[in-house]
Each structure stands twice: as C-alpha cells, then as structure tokens.
Fold:
Amino acid sequence: MLRIITHSTEVQAELQRIRHRTYDDEIHKQEVIVRKILETVKQRGDLAFIEDLELPLTKQKLRVSGSELDAAYQQISKGLLDGIQLVCQQLQSFHQQRLPKSWVKFEEDDVVIAKRYAPLNCAGLYIAGDRSSHISRVLMQAIPAQIAQVPRIVLVTPCDHNQKVDPEILVAAQEAGVHEIYRLGGAAAIAALAYGTETVPKVDVITGTGDLEVTLAKKMVYGTVAIDTPLQASDLMIIADYYSNPIQIAADLLAQVEQDPTTTIVLLTPDFGLAETVQEQILEQLQQYSPSILTEKAIAHYGLIIVVDSLEQAVTIANQFVPQYLMVDIAQPWDFVEKIRRAGTIMIGSATPKAITDYLGNSEVILPTGGMVRSASSLGVETFLKKSNLIQYSPKALKKLSDTLQLLAEAEGLSANAEAVRIRVEGERGLGNTEENRG
Structure:
C-alpha cells in the first residue's frame, strides 16, 4: 500500500531513504565484476564476447544485418510505424530549435572572437533489453545525434536467446537515423563502445540508461570517452489539491511504476481526503495489471503520499527533492509554476499525462535522476557537439592590454605567462627568426 505521511519530521527522512536506494556493499560487489568485464573486452576485443563472456554470438552475428533491418518493418503494425514517424517529426522539430549556431564577431583593432560547434565523429547509444520505454529511448537519443549531424551513430542493445533484437527497436533506430546496430548489452556493450573492438567502433560519447552494471560501467569509462549524466532509477512527483481527480492521479502514479518498478513516486497534497482516495484507487487499479510488473511491495517501498500544510509547502519540498518529472495538477497551476526552480520536466494541468512528455511533449526520457537535475542538463543535441572558442588578437590590440595582462599574470604567480605577453609586445625575436639561424 502507498503510505500516507502527515508529520513533517518524517518527510525528509523518508524522501532521503527512497532516493538513495542502492547500498554500498551492492555497488562494491558489482564494481569488481564490471571492472573485470571492461578489462577483458579492452584486452581481447571481439573474442571477449564469444570466448570469455560466453555470449550466444558469433563474430559475424555481432552486427544486425540489412536483411534483418528490412524484415523488422514487416513485424510491426502500420499504426505503430506511423506513431514512430510522428514522434520523429516532433523531436526533429524540437531539437532543430535547440541546435546552437556557430558565430563570429569582429571587434575593433582587428580582434576576432568566435564560437564554433562541430558534431562528434561517432556516438554510441545504449538501449536496455527490457521493453520499458524502449522505443522512446531510441528516439530520444538518436534524433538529437541526427540533428547534430553526427556522421556515425551506433546503437547497442541485448538480443534474446535466439539472437533476435526487438523489431520495434530496429525500426525506431532506422527511422531516427542510426547507422549501425550491435547485439550487445551490459558492461560488455559499454566497454566495446569505449575501447572499440575489431567489429564495434570506438565512439566519442556514450548515452543511454541501464541497470546498475551499465551505470557503473559508464562511470568507469568516463575520461576514455564522454558520457551523458549517469542515470539510475527515475522519479515522479505530483502536486495535487482538492480539485484534482484521484482516479487520474492514481493512474499517473501507476503509469510511472509500470516503466520502472523501482521508481520513486510521491504525491504532495494539502487535502487528506484526496490522499486517502488515491491510496484506495492505487489498490483498486493495481488489480488490472500483471503482478510481475506492478507490485504492492514496490509501491510500498518506493512510494509516498505526503499531506502538506499548503501548496506553498509542497513546492518547497519539490524544490528540495529535485524530481526528474513533476506534475502540477491543481486548480491554478500557473500560480505556482514560477516558484518551481528545480525539476527536470514539469507537466502542467490535468490534461498533461506523462505519456505526452515521453512521446510528443518535447521532453526527454533521458534526464538526470537522483537529484542530479540540480546541476546536470538533460540529453539533447548539445550532447553530440564539440564546441570550440576561437580568438585572434592583432598586435595593436595586444599592446593595449599588455600591461593589464602582465599585472594579472604576475599577481597569480604566473611569470612565464607574463613573459609570453612581454616578448610579443616588445618584438623580441626567437632563435628561429634571427638572421644567423636563417643562414
């Protein structure tokens, strides 16, 4: 049962408990395993998959073939294909607006300053083997990479025991511009992307979500390759009041748990009656779903209903918790939206279910979690771009600033920096420029 909390002293302790769900000993054990997998793939390449890790693959079957990609279209419905194409169009339009533009500015004294954005050479996208949000996660990663004009977009995803990859993933990947797909999952897939093998190319950035093994692997290869924000279980927080529909609120909470049984779900409301009704509705609606996906135990362990004194207090708690998704389902939502400073995606009003944000609402499924929204940004087109600052000063412009530059450098104990400025301004020649050395 989804518990109801009314005492403020209990609120912070419970929110901390459900946020930090993984124990250190579990992480330590998994780190040892992941580190061994990474090193094996780094040293052995393709052979690691076949001989050391004993994956049900041959070297020739690592990459999904063109015929398999073509056949995938015959295995999904026309309606689903239309839906995938619609989402692609929506996301392409959204990310096209986010695409930063290179610029150049010419200032006085022949000073040139500029910023240039260039696509990374190769991007690696990870898609977990479960069916939770598998289509949207493909699109949310591949479309920004496509808009950034990354010339080589590689996707890795586990196959089943028959070496088959979900046809929905294959179709979504093709519609979103993925160039290559490989049958690999877990830490082995991350290692292949980070280090490269005879078959799998080394990438510049790895994006995507997975279990603890994948999260740890991404953290360990960071530095060798860029990664998006390491992600763990997601969270949904709802602010509701007397005017909210309890049946609808319960459905929203269950919809979140359906995507991830370890997700955090929190309802904040000043209406105790609504809290009780939602609690009852959770139990009633739960009977409609498979217990293997939605269980009372998962909801009881990671879910809360917090009865607050006011909507202002609810906003304060939301800002402290920093949810990945925040639903504001109250009579006058815009009166409070401006006060919400920390949230990944804010869904406003009773007619905005999370499915809108996942598929058509121009949100991103790939968002930082566990409070990382405080400082990290969501995955987007910028993830797949390399930015460079360009600066050119003329001798005249440098001379005007030389005294200031030397003073600042000396103040910070950077004598060599100050000398580099002085030599330029005073026109001293290096050895390579003397008449004697020119011979």
In short: The first helix runs from residue 8 to 19. The chain has three domains: 3-21+233-361, 26-231+382-387, 393-438. The domain at 3-21+233-361 is CATH 3.40.50.1980 (Rossmann fold).
